[in-house]
Known about the structure:
Layout: H1 4-32, H2 38-45, H3 49-55, H4 59-83, H5 87-104, H6 106-113, H7 119-128, H8 130-142, H9 152-169, H10 177-188, H11 205-218
DNA-binding region: 37-56
Keywords: DNA-binding, Transcription, Transcription regulation
Domain HTH tetR-type: 15-74
Amino acid sequence: MPGPDAARALRKDAAxxxxxxxxxxxxxxxxxxxxxxxxxxxxxxxxGVGTAYRRFANKExxxxxxxxxxxxxVEQVAREAxxxxxxxxxxxxFLEGALDLQHGDRGLxxxxxxxxxxxxxxxxxxxxxxxxxxxxVERAKAEGVVRPDLDQTDLIFVQLALSAVMDRTRGLAPxxxxxxxxxxxxxxxxxxxxxxxxxxxxxxxxxxxxxxxxASRRRPG
Length: 221
């Protein structure tokens, strides 16, 4: 039996390997999508395949662990937004913060938007995040700073739409999504006298075509 010091060292090594595997998985999912294998993740992390299977039974467990991490981050952003005494500022904080997380982590966008991942994760987002977003929206409506027919689901679908913009233009104009976020925000405010300047220029017709056809060009055949 290992002594206390040896046992602590083993636990520390196990935790370090688990973190190494999660970081590797996050990078691989961002680069290649969710079809990588646990063997791929182990090789990328620089650990043995046996070590990987001791930490995670399969790739699904890796995705679950990463999903939990990311949901905790999104939930924290929503809670910070709800604590903002200014309802418009809180709404803006949530949208910009949640989108910034997706902007910096393509794997998160894929995990949240991939229908193959099942209803359980969708339900978790609904149960953990939706009530906080509802508080943000209802408070802003009560204070009259947004249009009265705005719903929390509108914010969810705006994020979904902007994540698609991110995915299409990441290598061409990575901040383009902020232009359309500004258009949306101006569309829900009730107190503006002028339009907010758009933070980035639009794509040209040629660049738009490039962005819209990039995914199809990557497909084999």
